[in-house]
């Protein structure tokens, strides 16, 4: 019983962080039909910056998200205005090529500047745990999950309770309708892309504490994130949530009761099964409409 | 108008001839007085980019050392490094191109068993000597290859012999009684840990837990939990790098500290390892190593100093292994006196070579016949604890202190 609870608790904690990382990806796809394969590179970029800042100042890496998130928002906005806007309205393949190029550029720059080394931030609590009864909750994972939930909550509020959020959702549902009532498609697109990349700011800062990373780590992360949003339904925030939790649970449950060797396989087997029954993923049927639900 | 296609055809023909001629003049079958071209393809990007980058450093230090002291057979070395992106298909294409188009005089190997497995087959097919600084998986040497030589002291199944010998050297009452074995699903670490498990079971230890996890595993808490449940005295992990750090962290998080912790490769990464797990948590961790900065082998000091000067960091085992591969190639060419691939291979099969790792010699299949050293983290530094003649300290930290 304890082992089962322990396994589920760990799975949920990990799932929360995955959810945040996948949220930006699914949001950008839902609104703009762009598959941003650079999201993993953004995560690693921010993890590296967080690590450096933590080394220099000793500030808490997860709290550094307060700085890295706005930074990524700015970078996302700039990238959209300068580069991504040029592939808007072309096929998704073009946007994948472009963002893959961005990912390779980031990897290369990190290689040159930060060097090809594994890093990981190790604040005082990184190897400590909370003990609830006989259940162990690693502190880093708990803080990381809380930060992720906070940002996801804010994202939900922005999309559902503000005019900006409404404009974003309106554009997603019906671009020409939105344009007719005076919503500027290009500024909404820039804003959405910026919000999407901003989630990589928080995600990257959390990653720096949870896992060792190096410039080429982004392949592993983007594979995971794409898996999550395909399972959940591309474009659906709720889907990203559910997909992330399923991945977190699949990883820990398979590793505990089966063998870690099967963890990845089980997750992809779930994707395969879901796609057989629901080709759009779990929540992807109303692809464009349910972005923010 | 009509002569245009003809002219295009003519241009193409001339270009083709030019290329052919260039190809011919580029070919260099061991004679001549120009530089000796040595080709290699390393994983400079991707999964193995970390050891790949270190290998490049080791090769370059070796090249400059040779070129600074009169070159090889009186000729300068021109080292050509290509990037295989940690990909088996790419490395096959790279070595094929190096051999058939660039017509390099000599080859040096790549990093990781995975990549060397494919690359050494290309070299063998083309009858090119293949001296590799990594690639100790046992299945490298069961293919009957004649041109392959591995320049570390031993292959994977003997990687952990040192820890077994140390366990056996303990008085009966102090010996660990139980052990857990976990390893990455990797052609090098798996046979190393499998063989260690067999050896320790024969020595009377009871196995409480074993598992194999894939290379991309990031969450080690479930594994750490399962290890802790059996509370073994000894934990051995076939760890490349990230996974070694992940496991130590997770063991700390679940609050289980074994009396003996052995990891195959991860602790050999110096500062990167101690930064990753936290300096205090390194105390007492054992690992096997092919090289020690403090070893008194010829040129070792020079290599270490040059590395520190160039890269402003402590030298690494991977770079040292690459340097040693260069030394092996150099010794063979010097002794044979000409570049004749088969003669070079025959010479290596029959002779010992002194390197910064120590003296190396090989079985007929290119498998090295030496032993790794047993190293241990002590007070934030790496010390060699066995064998005696290479040891840098007589002290062994046992049992490992509890996590900080």
From TrEMBL, chain A:
Record bears the keyword Transmembrane: yes
Pfam families reported for this sequence: BPD_transp_2
Matches recorded under InterPro entries: ABC_transp_permease, BCAA_transport_permease
Keywords tagged on the record: Amino-acid transport, Cell membrane, Membrane, Transmembrane, Transmembrane helix, Transport
Domain of life where this protein originates: Bacteria
The keyword Protease appears for this protein: no
Bilayer topology: Multi-pass membrane protein
Compartmental location: Cell membrane
Parts of the chain that traverse the membrane: 29-51, 63-83, 95-119, 140-159, 190-213, 225-250, 262-278
Membership in a protein family: Belongs to the binding-protein-dependent transport system permease family. LivHM subfamily.
Protein name per its UniProtKB record: Branched-chain amino acid ABC transporter permease
Annotated organism of origin: Kibdelosporangium persicum
Automatic annotation (TrEMBL), chain B:
UniProt keyword Coiled coil, yes or no: no
Residues spanning the signal sequence: 1-30
Keywords: Signal
InterPro entries cross-referenced by the UniProt entry: BCAA_transport (IPR051010), Leu-bd (IPR028081), Peripla_BP_I (IPR028082)
Coiled coil residues, start to end: none
Source taxon at top rank: Bacteria
Occurrences of domain Leucine-binding protein (ranges): 35-380
Family: Belongs to the leucine-binding protein family.
Protein name (Swiss-Prot/TrEMBL): Amino acid/amide ABC transporter substrate-binding protein, HAAT family
